[in-house]
Amino acid sequence: MKKILTTTVPAALIALGLAGAASAEIKIGASVSATGPAAFLGDPEAKTLEMLVEELNAKGGINGEQVELVLYDDGGDANKARTFATRLIEDDEVQAIIGGTTTGTSMSILAVAEDAEIPFISLAGAIDIIQPVKPFTFKTPHTDRMACQKIFEDMQKNGIQKIGMISGTDGFGASMQAQCKDVVGEYGIEIAADETYDPRDADMTAQLTKIRNTEGVQAVLNPGFGQGPSIVTRNYRQLGIELPLYQSHGVASDGFIELAGQQAAEGVRLPGTALLVADLLAEDDPQKPVVTAYKTAFEAKFKEPVGTFGGYAHDGFALLVDAVTRAGSAEPAAIRDALEQTSGLAGTTGIYTMSAEDHLGLDLSAFRMLEVKDGSWSIVE
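^ thats the sequence. predicted structure below, dont judge the formating
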């Protein structure tokens, strides 16, 4: 149960456990999966939040008030996430929470945050986090339902009418599988083969062989998260399957290409964010200044490529700062109300406009259909 603490006090005081001496007037909590199976998502989220708080305080904070970040590493464990959410609220007395790297940890945190009426901005993808709308819960990534719709739009444009699906049985995979099944009929597409795999599986050859042998299949979709989709992609190429392969936004990062292998990943399509193709954006794209600034700062500080998932944390923090600034208050209720009034805020993931009925504030235009070409991401025109 690791705790990472970023405050306005000297590092020596933190090391001595005297963080309570911080002079910060605005206290933000976070629980992310910086270690464990979702570390490739949570680690850049933690780094992003720490970097942004440091930058903000150097510029004078929010409305002249310094910001303190209390950051816990839940390791992807939903029970730890619940414990940390309780600690953030009851012991650390934060005014808002950002985090929930995975769907499971987000659901644990939101249950605590809703009971305490503390604003919570999730960094996970499942639609269940915000639908039905919960008074104090918001999120930054597109929903899995939106990802299905974006993928099916692309398939429809390419005349694909019959597909095979292979899904992870984790929370993300199961949720996206259900959402895809719910909307696929709207696009005149039939799921002719429907296979699953455990996220701990090291080989998906058997399931992919069944899909390959299903008559009429024109493409394959993998609602998945973590390392599973990379294994699916490698097995797919090993079997010599030449059908188009679509992955989910849950693996929209350079890390996916590295894990799958450049040759195996070549041609894979998925819905992703502007952040992955920052250099390819038009000069008048309203997201370009935001993604360029974040990419430049992150890569300069940490000497590693920026990714979609750190971008979700960037946007969560930007939404919170914007809400507190407009509200002129860091009281939880005021933050919550201001979040609902967010309008036209450009982030790395999209342009957010929220309301009482919409605690995400993104539409399908926030997604870019991307394809791996020559080992890097390209925009599908």
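Residues 144-278+367-379 form a domain with the Rossmann fold fold (CATH 3.40.50.2300).
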